[in-house]
Amino acid sequence: MDENQNSARQRLHALSEFLEREELDAVIIVHDDEYLSEELSPECERLRFLTGFTGSAGAFTFARSFDPARRKNETGNPKAGQEILKDAAVFVDGRYTLQVKAQIDGSCMQSFCYTDLTPSCWLCSVLPRGAKVGIDLNCISYDGYLKFKNHLAKSGISLVETRINAADAIWTDRPSPVHTKVRIFPDEYNGCPSPQKRRNLARELRERGLDATVICDPESICWLLNIRGRDRHCLPVVCCRMVAYSNEALEWYISDDHFDDNIQKALETHVGHIDIFPEDRFDEALKRLCASSASVYTDPQTVNAHVMKTLYEGGARVTEGLGLCLLPKAVKNHVELKGEYKAHIKDGVAMCRFLSWLDELTCPLKAQSDPEGYVRRVRDTDEKILADRAESFRKVEADYIEPSFDTISALGSDASMVHYSYLNSPNPKHLGDSPLYMIDSGAHYLDGTTDITRTVLVGPGFTDEMRLMCTLVLKCHISFATLLFPKGTSGGQLDAIARRPLWDAGCDYAHGTGHGVGHLLSVHEGPQAVSLHRSSVPLEPGMIISDEPGYYKDGCYGIRTENLLVVQECQRPGMRHMLCFSPLTLVPIDTRTIDPKRLTAGEREWLNNYHQNVCSVIKNASGTLTDSEVSWLIKATEPI
Amino acid sequence: MDENQNSARQRLHALSEFLEREELDAVIIVHDDEYLSEELSPECERLRFLTGFTGSAGAFTFARSFDPARRKNETGNPKAGQEILKDAAVFVDGRYTLQVKAQIDGSCMQSFCYTDLTPSCWLCSVLPRGAKVGIDLNCISYDGYLKFKNHLAKSGISLVETRINAADAIWTDRPSPVHTKVRIFPDEYNGCPSPQKRRNLARELRERGLDATVICDPESICWLLNIRGRDRHCLPVVCCRMVAYSNEALEWYISDDHFDDNIQKALETHVGHIDIFPEDRFDEALKRLCASSASVYTDPQTVNAHVMKTLYEGGARVTEGLGLCLLPKAVKNHVELKGEYKAHIKDGVAMCRFLSWLDELTCPLKAQSDPEGYVRRVRDTDEKILADRAESFRKVEADYIEPSFDTISALGSDASMVHYSYLNSPNPKHLGDSPLYMIDSGAHYLDGTTDITRTVLVGPGFTDEMRLMCTLVLKCHISFATLLFPKGTSGGQLDAIARRPLWDAGCDYAHGTGHGVGHLLSVHEGPQAVSLHRSSVPLEPGMIISDEPGYYKDGCYGIRTENLLVVQECQRPGMRHMLCFSPLTLVPIDTRTIDPKRLTAGEREWLNNYHQNVCSVIKNASGTLTDSEVSWLIKATEPI
Questions:
Q1: CB–CB of A506 and B209 under 8 A?
Q2: B435 near B364, Cβ under 8 Å?
Q3: Which strand (E) or helix (H) includes residue B416?
Q4: What ipTM was reported for this prediction?
């Protein structure tokens, strides 16, 4: 603790010296990296380095010229508890308000929730007119930068681009970026050869009257070139940038060490000719586009403010919009879908074996009669052991690559934190003191990516309230899974339909109902989503979306039931203009937690049909299930 | 017909001369007026004057230097049927594609649906590089103007502001604007004296660090000053503009002839001191704001491009956002709500008397056995007579002012046109040849504004399909009316919930589920709405919203069931964090068109409770119902 405090103070001191050298009064450092992604590689964990906070979004401010006399917000008194007392602050959203307090050194920095105080309000409150605030434009969106800049300007404060990210400047033992080798993602898995994707993209550019598009998200580039890598934790990409031209030419900006001798040749066959440049020469490409007044398409969600500003101020004719690879990437072709089905069968086998193992260990229905025997059996098993065990069953499946995200393995009250990770918990819970266990996990297989959440009974103490809430969450899940909706409907329009059974009971969940899923790419993939944000894109046949309503009782328990669904055309006669969902995920939902009397006949029918399908597919697909695992499966999928 | 053709050609000829004088190659004229409102006064019906088209949205383009050789869109072939053959075109949305064809002179102009061809694509297709297109910036939003400008610029075409609207320049017998007298709207009806509203507005400006706001929508100004007028058809306002300052000063820009000797004094008492200027001096106010670099708040939805451009280019510091009067105007106070309840009782009495009269005339259940007697009885009654009759029952109610919109009175296939008006129909239908009659109507009373739709049985020929669709529309209506939802939820998030029963049958309706309603102001009032557009504003207690799902079978029939609802806090124990709806409208829903077997127990209970309430309130409220009207009411509200 003392050491952590020392180091936090030392870092602030170093930051203060950096600002003095750069003649800045303050600095803003945001969570995102140069690719504006949430999932960071270690060398980009700047917020964690500066503050110890490990959440997936946030911002940090530090004012060298902190003036205690200016502590109050100029435009009024700050809300109770929002008084600014330190020269450093971390800003997080509602998901992380508890976590941030536990992780930062409160003796030298404060934390705020965005809805109470924004970083720019903080800066306006502590800085005098004429002050200069530094920011790294590589790590923020152009819109975000303009918003900061305009807000600060109102208080006479200027926002200036720093030569280098302030955190990097003082980060003496900063890890080197991981550059893994480019791997060919064979056409038998991707279903559309790269030359074809490239022709489609160039045609789209021509049809829109555009000369080029700047692509700065590695996922789009890996999709376009049908390659993969391992640069990112749980995200099988290589980090790189690209300019794609309307004449089908591609300029690829990527660090040399992503290649070995063989790959370049294989690439030429796989992709066709590409011009490859070191990534640090990307700015030259931007300058060329500017010099020729090219008409350039960019996606401000993935192209950072430095790039956007360079293009805008350099004289390129910029059109902003959804990245041109995003929709074709989101709509899976038949080969990709066939792979996803195969991956979900393997994942279903693994999860069934895990849940069968867990049931044998916990025997929750018998635990009541022999509480001591139960505790003896389970007490050594903590959330990490459970997560590892689940992964161990996946690891033996064919073409397993890695988890698709850090497993959320949560017992009791830990599950009430929507983004809980036992990795960041000082005391992961053990089996034995909570009736419910939630596991949200997934994997990348060569043929597809999975993501599933189940909440299962693991011990005594299951209450009527828990049964009610498990049932309502299932009703929400079914309400969404059984939807028929017209073409042109976006996920955002459908979000409330999943919530209604919980709303009727006065409850809700503070996250979206579902997200898109990539094909051996990000497990959180746009542009479609079922939530209030980022979700005006119509759902289209071939898109994958998660259906994951939940209920979280603070400090008590959490419930979530998640399947992945594929969007399909409705096959009923006369209904081809409507879309519907078909589940990919093949794992039983724990019927012991459900009150059948609260389900409608239609809901019971859905659940029983789903289970019948799970049972027959998993039983037939796998030679690896033991007899006892098969018995478990049959019992777990019995009709209710 | 010949005369109409002649005059259309003559107008295009005059337009061509105007363009020649102004050295322009083409012109865009949009439907909106200087206040960007859809509901136009006669002198602003420019699209109708130029083309004969009477819809509530659209645009017109005319190219003097029309070049037949450039007919094809530069960036590709136009879609089938979208070839440009004339030098004039009208652009409409999906609601009006049939109507526009029937109304314009096809020998000299074409019509297009926006989704097939936009006005700017049309202009780019027919004009050479270097061409100049004129536009009246007073009649378009700033965003709309920038979009046009940028699109045209890509084809080397410039968009320039005309001194005068091109339509006005050639409109020799253009009506004078109607300027009615300002009327005090007494505090006993508005529930919040104007000086209080003005203080609140000034405080809001100060809290946001703003110097002033420019208000260009007459509804906000009339609300703020607690006045009304009769300048607009069905919209009881006076046309005017305003600058409101953070020190509570108000500058009101309004034509002199809105006042008589008495009103100025009464205003001073009612509102406090205001500086009144002629409306044509509004530009001077803008220049003053620019000269002082004032920080000015504007709502780009209601402030036209001329004003926005003047502010932006003149050096004012502009903040754009939702007009500052909109939310307080939308959230009705207790006095306003009490008035709305009273107005809806009167409106309920009137509609019950109308429906009782209609039932006695048509006796639809007996019509089958005596078809000739039926036809003899009803054949002289057309859609206009029905609408007038409904209004006649309203006119006798206390404090009736005027209809709140043009009544949609539609028999049979006419009802399948969502925005049908018998006023624009050459042959309004008569009773006798369709089983269903839809009436969507409402009124302004001094105490409130109403809007109700009922679809009722008026003759033989009612099919099983119609019964199914009437039942599904009712299920949709109930699905929305019974919603419980958390605070912070917007109408846009709830729209799909109303649609689900129709979606399940593969059907939908091509309009929003509901709109806000003003208090003796516009019957279509924002900022809340239950639709995909314009509806990210959270619903708040006190807001009024319509619930009007429908089903429209082209050329056959149309069904809609509409009540107005008030947003309320849920009163159940422990549920105060949730919101719900309470119906304002008090008129029976025709149970003869409903299949009770298709309703759930909960839906039947809702309908029976609603009818019980309608019956008891209307019976008790009115001394004017005859015995036979009371008998009708009792029968119409019998439980099913």
A1: no
A2: yes
A3: none
A4: 0.89
